Amino acid sequence: MSPNKRMSTLAKNTVLPFSMPDFESHPYRTFAIGCVVGGCIWASVLPVNWTLGGVAGFVVLALLATTTVLDLQFRRIPNWATYSAFVIGIGLNVIAHFAENWSAWLGAVGLGSSLGGGLGMLAIMFVIFSLSGGGAGDVKLAASLGTLLGWDMILQAMLYSFIVAGAALACYAIWTIGPLELFIACFRSIGCRLAPGMIAPPPSQHRVLLKKQFPLAPFFTSGVLIAALL
């Protein structure tokens, strides 16, 4: 084989770690187009006065369904889903801002509420997850939902999400180590910070349980659905 052919074959079979991925190989465009087309059909078939009616309502459900499945299976929330939904949420409300007659059909919540929900959730969830050690995907998911649902509804949805998550995690911990051990572990975890040297920290296996991370996309889904139905 000639040197030129050898170099050509090597270049084809080598994947450089620093090479930029091809945009077409990622599902940004597929997900965005699917959400818009599906949302138009959704808004045309279902009553738009429903909380999750309109194009935005379909995007919310598509985003939650996609991220829930991927978070449960891979413990990851992909950027192509959250970024696409964030842009769509802002875009729908920009259109509705200049074409108010389309507002209900688009499922718009108002440009101010959309921006407040997206950017406000981004700031709040970033602080919460910085302190708790959560993942950035959960922050982006909350921000994307904020642009689609608006400030008021996303706050309710997140409140319900954390209530459901807290209850589920408490049940898991009780099932794993029992109610008394859970109480002692929580007491010692808080007490060792308030009175170091007087109260011993919980044992390592309990610390692992208390710091265990769970996929939050399913709880976000439950929170949004509860907020939509109430």
UniProtKB/TrEMBL annotation:
It comes from the Bacteria. The chain crosses the membrane at residues 28-46, 52-73, 80-99, 105-132, 153-175. One of its GO terms (biological process) is signal peptide processing. Residues 59-167 form the Prepilin type IV endopeptidase peptidase domain. GO terms for molecular function: aspartic-type endopeptidase activity. The keyword Transmembrane applies. Keywords: Membrane, Transmembrane, Transmembrane helix. Pfam families: Peptidase_A24. One of its GO terms (cellular component) is plasma membrane. The keyword Zinc does not apply. Belongs to the peptidase A24 family. This is Type IV leader peptidase family protein. The lineage of its organism: Bacteria, Pseudomonadati, Planctomycetota, Planctomycetia, Pirellulales.
